[in-house]
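User: Please fill in residues for this 210-position structure.
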């Protein structure tokens, strides 16, 4: 049995061994090439250079990362959502921006003092991002300020509340998968500095979750 140069050490070599160095691709006459420098791409070809061998890109997201990417794509297309935004002085304004198989996209606006109330989204997971202004989210006993471009994801049963505690209007984008069918409210609590009628604990409009 002939050995390649990579199969032996100096202690293995005897006068009767025939060693072929195949790193240069050379094989003596009558020899059999048992190894070589080719990589998998050299042997099989680069699949990225053969688009017809690649699976087609899905027309709709199927994963949390995919829905987060969709949210960022919509957010970046300001001309696609900004002309649609409106404001309601009585309650949050909301608009279903689009739907797809197993998901829906909502556009919401929040005037100062308006909020979602403490709730969860039933069996739906979700992604939301702030498009303009700032919102405050409370969940699991902690509060956080969400500025423009902030993106949050959540699983079914995640309890939170979102409200605009600032002085300027805010706009946000929400994606639910599967589409939102229920939004149970948790027990309200007293909000410090919140508007009594439209503060963060006010009951939200049906299916217009934060």
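Assistant: Residues filled in for all 210 positions:
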């Amino acid at each position: 049995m002939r050995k390649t140069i990579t199969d032996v050490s100096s202690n293995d070599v005897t006068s009767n061994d025939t060693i072929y160095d195949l790193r240069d691709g050379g094989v003596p006459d009558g020899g059999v090439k048992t190894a070589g420098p080719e990589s998998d791409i050299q042997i099989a070809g680069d699949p990225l250079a053969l688009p017809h061998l690649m699976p087609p890109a899905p027309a709709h997201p199927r994963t949390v990362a995919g829905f987060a990417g969709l949210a960022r794509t919509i957010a970046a297309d300001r001309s696609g959502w900004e002309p649609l935004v409106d404001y309601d002085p009585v309650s949050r304004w909301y608009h279903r921006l689009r739907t797809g198989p197993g998901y829906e996209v909502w556009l919401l606006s929040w005037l100062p003092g308006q909020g979602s109330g403490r709730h969860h989204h039933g069996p739906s997971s979700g992604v939301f991002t702030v498009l303009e202004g700032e919102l405050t989210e409370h969940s699991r006993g902690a509060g956080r300020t969400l500025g423009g471009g902030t993106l949050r994801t959540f699983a079914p049963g995640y309890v939170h509340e979102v409200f605009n505690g600032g002085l300027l209007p805010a706009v946000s984008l929400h994606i639910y998968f599967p589409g939102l069918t229920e939004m149970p409210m948790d027990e309200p609590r007293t909000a410090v500095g919140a508007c009594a009628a439209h503060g963060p604990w006010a009951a939200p409009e049906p299916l217009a979750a934060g």
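For context: The first strand starts at residue 3 and ends at 4.
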